[in-house]
């Protein structure tokens, strides 16, 4: 098979994933959606999620069209520039947006069906939840490879790249390849912008609703969490889908495309236009998709079986299978070129073979898994970090917070050392192209990885629906069980996300230097570079401040609205008193009370809470999003060197803050859960649910919420979005010099 | 006057400052130390502070001797290396240690005398407190210039630098000058190491005692703050001296020497050995010391006058006077060399005159003042940031913490932009030498600046002594008044500290590149540089985690000890009940109760608390201190380029964390005070002392304590210490290549 034909496999594998998604969506639709009450709740969550997406996409359409027009216009002003960059940007944004839409559509259908299935047992519930997540995963990788692949094949066909290479016109081929890469960077930038807005908007939505619902419902009114009398509960559930499913999907879409692109660019540059360097990342991605689809069928468990084992076999199995397949692909490409490839120029040439490239790729994989294990250590119950927070909670919230921040700070150390080792190893064996392959190695099985990630919030949501519709307690137990087992795999996923973001940003950063400064070096002691470095280091802090303030303000709006409903709707007020009293007396409601409370639940104005979260998150996602888009452009047009510094600065402090915030948040969360697990009579009596220690731990958990679900995960995207913006504007900067 | 003679002015000006310090120390000793109870408390604080210093210096002596020996040995192994580097290191450490010793000795004498003077009025109390601070300030700059100046004059005499220059042996002179600079860097490193240990140790000491005293005394036993029944109160007061006086003194000693050295090195390198470039920073520093001494006599107020005005005239007046004097010095040096100086080599030569150098220097001064104003804005009552924390405290500690962290993050933005502008301006007018002069501009009046800074904790301590010895309330009011007015000037001082640290580190960083890589550039996209950048960015997080954990652990030890005394000393237990009951009933003690309580106060085992803080802080300062010393050495011997990246990474994330932590801490502190100022009947009744909002604000303040007093200020030193270590080992690395 020649290489040109092989490239068609890329969009074809995307179609395979989409076909899987379509079939599975149909299957999920046919599952039982439970009783009327469940159906109604499910419908409310579905409509809330769709309302958010509609509002978000309305704003983003305007934004995307403007940027696309601007890019096309600017590119036509430079020699050899193509207006296709704007079109590619549009296509990237569209594919990412569609992936979010389809994924969330099915996730909000799957949650209520998971709850329904959990009435009969654990095994059917696992299948529904996992397949719901798998649709999300396959939509993401399918649309990514379809869009990216079709665009790529069109471009190389249009420019007759293979013809040029065949007739030995290396110079023309090189120019053509550079142009293809610029346009593909536009696609990646489109996906990244959507990702940033989706992550920030979703993060604000979910935490505003969560904090608002908890503070008024649980703390002030004294009713249980997720109770249907609380009008913010539906918004909270919508938020889980919006933030954890759609936000994460867009995030990984962006990482996936970004790491493929980074490897393509660096490969093309380092090897002076060898097509194999471009083919390797694309073919590995295509193979990863097919493997992911196949492995979804392995994830199933028997009744009484351990769902953890099922998920592990799926995710780790896929990663393990990818090793021989990657070897085969790399070896094929390298042998086409005669067995060794010269990477680099002049005295810095590195002659690499199949094994060198494999080592580079595996070093990323190993670092990603190790970081995941460390992430798990810092956030798990019973381990030293969480234990120390539990200890320090004894003397109140202040010591709990100090301990959590300390743990979060400390948790940056080992992951950074591991990333450093991975860079060192990948670079030693295959230069910067190796670093890019290391990032790709972690993301080749994104399809199934994302399925496992999205399965968590679906199970969590199913639990909420079970609670709200008053299903028997064992249903909730089953969904909790499902939710809990996803944690380890999710921690590994987090490790992959952070490590791959750092490595992908590094490779795109090197690509930027090549494109914008054309041969000139980026010298760290130059004042302009240092200015960029300092400004770039500051941006993640400012960005996080904006995201956190948005959560605070939006939560305040939500609190005011829930308080208003509790005060102004008389039947609701009465029902609240009944439920709170029963809670206090630790008894179940009588049949009569139950009927009254259910009737009152009909009167809650759920839509208003949904509207508040939607509006607040859409409005407040704009400022941080624009910060990320505009800063590199402004700094870059002042000085391309300063922009280089800016990217490095953002990378450094962004990675640290991202690790700090997500690990501190995770540790606080599990410290609270660990306190809740304690027996009340333990030690000095300051333990367990309801104790002073528990109150302190709850405060830590609340502080951690915007850390781990809003600001933290958005920072990964910030780093990469700024870098890809720089790569896209690099030819404009180079032309302007 | 020829230049050689002028250089003798440097140690001479140091002697002037020390003479002032000696005379003023005598004057303070003659002031009234109050009644017997005050004298006893004063004595306890004095002895506690001296015990800490003794313990600290014992450990540091071993450490300093080891490092000095190692440096001397290593330097003799390279061609042209001098064992004097180790001796200079020893001298730097000794001078810094002596400054801390004398400064703290007099500060702990001045505090009780300030309390005594406050019995008669505000004006005499101001004079005592300010002069106490001035002794500290003059000891620091005096010993710095004396040590640095004597060493420098000895070295240039020994090498006959002026003879070489006179006979046109430029090459030999250049080599000699480089050697002088290496040795002076050793002096600076000695001062920096002492500074880091003093800051970290002092920071741990003060916060462990503070948190421990408050939690058991105020929260658990219900007695007022600073009550003499609380055995940790003396330790708390000792801590204020150890942390805020001695720690800050060592910190500024280090900044001061570092910025002079940075300017000397860059000047010598950029101008290819022009002695004027070395003379300018030294002479400006010498002039600044004399101006500082003179301006201390201006700081006085009439009874009923505004002490703020007196302090402002002193500090700002000195800075204003320095402008024409600096112009004169620069103009003299530039004219000696013919009116313009060529800085740089090859195509990058910049011809600069007097005005260019002045602009560079002033740009630093302007940025420092502006950053101070912004710092003031973020930490002041009634301004938007603190108001927002007060608002968010309404819904509890979690929202208070989220708001404070958000404000702290946000507060990094403007200072960084200002530092960037200062670098840009200084570089445009006078290259990297200009950047070094910008740092120096801020620190030329360190003498009086430090007097104002140290005056704050002396007044604060005087208030504590007044409280503990049962002086009438108006005495406490006066000392509070004194303490409060120092805040604005202290904020400016903080601005100077951060901005000058960043600029000085930048110039030393450039100096490192010149020394270690000798002509080779530090290329940002090189994998080794990137690895260094990431590791360096992580170090401030790890360092802060260590410092914060040390505070937490030491506070726990203190809490356990205070609880033990409250439980096991029967008369103390009874007295506590009496005081707490009176507090609750909001009445004064009867004469009989008072006598019983005072008798019980005699039984507290103050020394044990002092010993706990001392031991904990000495033990726990070692780990973060070694981290800062060892990392650059290990990374540097692996790769000199990676060490360059490491320094840049530490600079970027260190500056951000330092600004974040000190501003968040300051904002939380004043948010608490603002809540305390509120009337109880304001709004929804959730305001003022004792309200839920107040409890939330107190928690924020406690979280902020280790931020602003332990980790935050230590980070400034961390950044510079790592850079100076790199400069000192640079010739070793270059020789090893």
Please explain how this structure is put together:
The structure is a homodimer of 737-residue chains. The first copy, chain A, is mostly helical and 737 residues long. Helix content of chain A is 84%, strand content 1%. Chain A contains 21 helices and two strands. A two-stranded antiparallel sheet of chain A has the order 1-2. In chain A, a hairpin with a 6-residue loop joins strand 1 and strand 2. In chain A, helix 17 crosses helix 18 and helix 20 packs antiparallel against helix 21. Chain A is globular. Chain A starts with a helix and ends with a helix. The relative contact order of chain A is 0.13. The mean pLDDT of chain A is 88. Chains A and B meet through helix 12, helix 13, helix 15, helix 16 and helix 20 of A and helix 12, helix 13, helix 15, helix 16 and helix 20 of B.
Task: Note the topology.
The structure is a homodimer of 737-residue chains.
Chain A: H1 3-30, H2 36-76, H3 84-118, H4 122-158, H5 161-166, H6 170-221, H7 232-270, H8 275-296, H9 307-336, E1 341-343, E2 350-352, H10 354-379, H11 384-392, H12 397-410, H13 413-443, H14 446-468, H15 473-517, H16 527-568, H17 570-584, H18 591-601, H19 606-638, H20 640-677, H21 692-736
Antiparallel strand pairs in A: 1-2
Helix pairs in contact in A: 1-4, 1-8, 2-3, 2-7, 2-19, 3-4, 3-6, 3-7, 3-14, 4-6, 4-7, 4-8, 4-14, 6-7, 6-16, 6-19, 6-21, 7-8, 7-13, 7-14, 7-15, 7-19, 7-21, 8-9, 8-14, 9-10, 9-15, 10-13, 10-15, 11-12, 11-20, 12-20, 12-21, 13-15, 14-15, 15-20, 15-21, 16-17, 16-19, 16-20, ...
